[in-house]
């Protein structure tokens, strides 16, 4: 089933792409520059380029995906956003995931967020004190474990 990484051009996003690429049949990415997209495309990733605060573009890229990994750093790292202020970008993404019919969201963030009930499965992976590769390992575990109940997740990975 397709998976998309929003913010795939952040350090955590890059590590996440590398962690899940070998085991995902269709991997998509949403990035802010053509250069980032070109690098991903050479590795077989379907990459869309746009403003991370534009919900319609994010929803279009995510349409038909089962799982979305939302890397909050892409909303707060100082890149230009024209459609929403940085503090509102994650809410824009969540609405876009609902509009795109995404079933599962993995939010990579240290900020708690209310996930809409229209998204039946969600998890938050905290980044504080973790290297990007460590965060990516947790995300890959969750992406693989889509059919497992969350009460069976290892406790050291809970956020």
Uncertain segments are 146-159
Q: What percentage of the residues does DSSP assign to strands (E)? A: 15-25%
* General shape: globular
Helix-strand sequence: EHEHEHEHHEEH
Tell me, rounded to a whole number, the average pLDDT.
87
Helix content: 25-40%
Separate helix tally: 6
* Structural Rg: 14 Å
In total, the number of strands is: 6
Describe the largest sheet.
6 strands, parallel
Structural class: alpha/beta
**Cα distance spanning the termini:** 25 Å
- In the sheet with the most strands, the strands line up as 3-2-1-4-5-6
Q: Determine the oligomeric state from the structure.
A: single chain
How are the SSEs ordered, and which strands pair?
Layout: E1 3-6, H1 11-20, E2 27-31, H2 34-42, E3 46-49, H3 55-62, E4 67-71, H4 73-76, H5 89-100, E5 104-108, E6 121-125, H6 132-144
Parallel strand pairs: 1-2, 1-4, 2-3, 4-5, 5-6
Helix pairs in contact: 1-6, 3-5
